[in-house]
Amino acid sequence: MTDIEVAWSELGGDPALLSRVSTVVREGALQGRLPVRELARACVGACALAAAELGARRAGLAEVPAVRVDDGAVATAFVSERHLLVDGRAPVTFAPLSRFWRTADGWVRTHANYPHHRQRLLAALGLPEGRVPSVESALAERSALEVEEAVYAAGGLAVALRTPEEWAAHAQGAAVAARPLVERGRLDSAPARALAPITPGDDGTPLLPAAGLRVLDLTRVIAGPVATRTLALLGADVLRVDAPQSPELPDQHADTGFGKRSAALDLAAGRRTFEELLAAADVVVTGYRPGALDRFGLSAEALAERRPGVVVAQLSAWGAYGPWAGRRGFDSLVQVATGIAAVEGSPQQPGALPAQALDHGTGYLLAAAVLRTLTEQSYEGGSRVVRLALARTARWLMHGVGHGRTGGTAYDEAGGTASEGMGGRAYDGARPWLAEADSVLGRLRYARSPLSFAGGPLDWTRQPGPWGTDAPCWS
């Protein structure tokens, strides 16, 4: 199977629709030792096809609109956080203490972008302040596994560098390998979803497959917000809700906040307000550690009981199973644990993928799963749950992507046919896929969405605003 066939099959899609997808091949995009370009292409292609399928269903089209996946657009979007400029200023993507460190027996990577994670890291190391030389000295005296366990026990984030073989032998690696790339489940027998008809997109009005749908966005960082940013592009009313005491990093929020509104709401004190939001929501997307939101009644089962017919989309770093199910995690740390950093590096220094591809790829797959589920619900009904994990996407990258046969239709920039992954033009940079717009945050330069299907939207209609400043209500 080709990579997009694998993704589409995992989403439960009709294989006959894959003939609607074509690819613009660009050599040099997302270069690495692992097939990152192919992963990105498959994730975006599957998401665009799911959007086109839902759009055709709602608009009453006889044929699903044609999907075009451009390696250049995909490569640009997969590093959208690096292309963002706010009044000409580039964001800082990693804090000084978020990096690789030598230990007594190897390497460890820490993540301390958020203030509370930085504080917990320093507490675990017994350091009163976070000067880099002090952290280097403290870590150099300990083994990598000792650091990993001590920092996690303190509520921080640190992961020891492992080889692919070491991860495969680890209990969490084995648990991840036993699961599908996309977990899909039906929670009840709610009636079929009645989808309001939409404009077919042939009169200059964009075809918006998610128009009129309400999405509660309870996600943070990159992967979940990429998924909900994509649903917003497709017309959904997306309301991101965060705890007032846990602000998002401003630049990160700006990059993933296109198309959305952002509200601060305490889920305990503001329970009545949240229940009012849930009562009118079509989709709830969560991106916290498995089980972390259950005490607020936000398990998939509890949500479906109160809102029959809802789609619950859950995202985690390590999966909702295995000994690491309750651990926090980020793309950079999953790369280290699963052996990706070892493969992309050298014996002298660990490496990294050319993009935070686990985040972005999983984000597009999560959006695709929501879109496909909405289509399925329109025929079969039922409250639904879909689950994805960065670690499972990592396994697909390491052991699945690029290992199947070549197939599908691929085109070079001029429209001539080329073999998939061969014969395309070079990727000459991101400029064709960047846009600029004024916003309340300032003048923004940003990466446009890589989703492209006939009649579909070209850009977001709403620019990001300051975090947490919108009212917690639907538009």
Q: What report would you give on this structure?
A:
It contains 17 helices and 19 strands. The chain is α/β, with parallel strands linked by helices. It has a seven-stranded mixed beta sheet with strand order 8-14-13-12-9-10-11, with helices on both faces. Strands 3-1-15-16 form a four-stranded mixed beta sheet. It starts with a helix and ends in a 28-residue tail after the last strand. About 4% of the residues have low confidence.
Layout of secondary structure:
Layout: H1 3-10, E1 21-24, E2 26-27, H2 36-59, E3 67-70, H3 71-77, H4 80-83, E4 85-86, E5 100-102, E6 107-110, H5 115-125, H6 132-140, H7 144-153, E7 158-160, H8 164-169, H9 171-177, E8 183-186, E9 214-218, H10 223-233, E10 237-242, H11 250-256, E11 260-264, H12 271-279, E12 283-286, H13 300-306, E13 311-316, H14 331-337, H15 340-344, H16 357-380, E14 384-389, H17 390-399, E15 409-411, E16 417-418, E17 425-426, E18 434-439, E19 442-447
Parallel strand pairs: 1-3, 1-15, 2-17, 9-10, 9-12, 10-11, 12-13, 13-14
Antiparallel strand pairs: 4-19, 5-6, 6-7, 8-14, 15-16, 18-19
Helix pairs in contact: 1-2, 2-16, 5-7, 10-16, 16-17
